[in-house]
Design goal:
Elements lengths: L3 E9 L2 E9 L11 E2 L4 E2 L5 E2 L4 E2 L7 E4 L5 E4 L1 H5 L8 E9 L8 E9 L5 H14 L1 E9 L2 E10 L2 E7 L20 H13 L13 H14 L20 H15 L17 H4 L19
Parallel strand pairs: 1-9
Antiparallel strand pairs: 1-2, 2-10, 3-4, 5-6, 7-8, 9-11, 10-13, 11-12, 12-13
Length: 300
């Protein structure tokens, strides 16, 4: 059972759902210690008081806000916990809306909300089924770790998931990052659509969706433990320095994508389509909608 991160309640209208929050994800990354390379001993961070020039224990450390150069205002955990906020002990739903109307950039890490005790079972199921049947998500406010946050509640299977959300002013304006104005031909767009069709997937369970970096780091550690040479890195392809023929690259990409999926890997024809038929050129494979497992779209 994952560790409980926070306990409280979901509230919408006069309905209250006691819940406790657990992480919905696991970190499988390989983590390293800082070590002294001469003898491999651990190097740790010491907490030193700048005024007394001595190391202090955890129970001597608290929070303080730098009001002026000379004045620091202490703020205790108890004072933060007792702030007069309705969201201090509750995830307060403030709106319901279509998931498609929420910018994926604003959606962050996810947590499972588990009903806290038998009394929470019925209102929990009520909220879950209401979200599922309405095809909507709930937008809520809650306070964790010294700040008020915005959150998104959605259905995943039989569970309710809470995603942290970024406030509007936390999303940067991308206008200054956009490329200069360029022109694309219909043939180039059709070629991209054909490539997208060959790369369409129904789920993310295919072998290519795996953490190859962590696998490579694990192999490196194993090789060093066994005192053998780690696998050599593959040589990067040499760059020609020439401008890429976009249509040729698209056709070759379609051919390779088909070959990797065991389809006809021969010549890939990309034809220009009459106006108004581009959307019918390369239909994605249809899947049965599963409202209970809808996930926020993620931006690349």
């Amino acid at each position: 059972m994952p560790r409980t991160i926070w306990s409280g309640a979901i509230s919408f209208g006069l309905v209250t759902v006691p819940i406790h929050v657990v992480s919905a994800t696991e970190d499988h990354s390989i983590h390293f210690h800082r070590v002294h390379l001469e003898d491999m001993a651990r190097v740790r961070t010491r907490k030193v008081c700048e005024l007394e020039d001595r190391e202090v224990s955890s129970d001597e450390i608290g929070k303080g806000y730098q009001l002026t150069k000379e004045l620091v205002v202490p703020v205790s955990e108890e004072e933060l916990r007792d702030l007069p906020l309705p969201t201090a002990k509750a995830i307060e739903i403030v709106a319901f809306m279509p998931q498609e109307s929420i910018d994926p950039l604003r959606v962050a890490e996810g947590y499972y909300l588990a009903p806290d005790g038998q009394v929470a079972g019925k209102p929990y199921k009520l909220l879950r089924q209401a979200l599922e049947r309405s095809s909507r998500v709930a937008v809520a406010r809650y306070a964790w770790s010294g700040r008020e946050r915005l959150g998104l509640l959605r259905v995943r299977g039989e569970a309710i998931v809470l995603h942290a959300m970024r406030w509007p002013d936390e999303i940067r304006d991308p206008s200054e990052l956009l490329p200069p104005a360029v022109e694309l031909s219909d043939e180039e767009i059709d070629g991209a659509l054909a490539l997208m069709d060959t790369m369409t997937r129904d789920d993310l369970d295919a072998p290519e969706f795996r953490d190859t970096y962590t696998e490579a780091v694990a192999e490196l550690i194993e090789a060093k433990r066994e005192h053998r040479e780690p696998p050599a890195a593959s040589e990067p392809a040499e760059e020609s320095g020439q401008l890429v023929d976009l249509m040729a690259a698209l056709k070759e990409s379609v051919s390779k994508a088909k070959a990797s999926r065991g389809e006809d890997g021969g010549h890939a024809d990309v034809h220009e389509m009459p106006a108004g038929r581009a959307a019918k050129k390369a239909p994605a494979r249809k899947t049965t909608p599963k409202k209970a497992t809808r996930k926020p779209r993620k931006s690349a």
